[in-house]
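Example record

One chain of 249 residues, shown exactly as stored in the release files.
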Amino acid sequence: MTTGLLLQGVVAGYGWGDVLKGVDLRVSEGHITCIIGPNGAGKSTLLRAISGLLRPSSGSIEFEGRAMVGLAPAEILESGIVHVPQDRSVFPHMTVWDNLLMGGYMLRNRDAVQRRAEEVALRFPMLHDLRRARAGALSGGQQRMIEIARSLMLDPKVVLMDEISMGLDPRTRALAFDSVKKIKESGATVVLVEQNARAGLAIADIGVVMEGGMVRLEGPAEGLLADPQVSRLYLGRGASVALQKEGQT
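Predicted structure tokens for this chain:
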């Protein structure tokens, strides 16, 4: 039986045409895979195809040997794949704690939901400090933390994360990336789409470069960071050198 997440020849798009043009990708279990690439490369579309929000027109997506294409998003969620989208998705008029509890809506046992919420909150102290605050009144970074924490309520096997650092200040961005590492430490697999390519690759095990709706490069994240061509095209001039200096401080 095939384990993990496997995509073969995935083609998908919208009314104006295909965005994904034959994606082949094997996601390593228990690792952080960071997908980078220019705008329009198909990174977010790929996550939507995996989570069932967009149905591929051809190709296959398998998780733990089970075909995912054609399943409803709720069925894919039940299989253990959770999607944290790019757009803010908190319930603004609900409290922080109620937002967290909403992540366990598929669990029928209320006591189990409460227990799971307490377990998740141990990783995110902010949830306890602000548990009675209205979510919509919090900063963008705090709302992002709620979304990340909420994604863990069902104890997922795979967490798809789309641009978690977008619009965040440096301190909150660091907290967001730290939360990604904690998810990996819990045993889950993370697929991270990130425009902040250098920071994303710095915490990843595997790096993937997408362009034109296809996977162009794939390998150890450390190797992609050190690749002069990747640095020049996707990380900005001198990015690899800057990263090395950061590691020495």
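Notes: Residues 224 and 230 are 6 Å apart (CA to CA).
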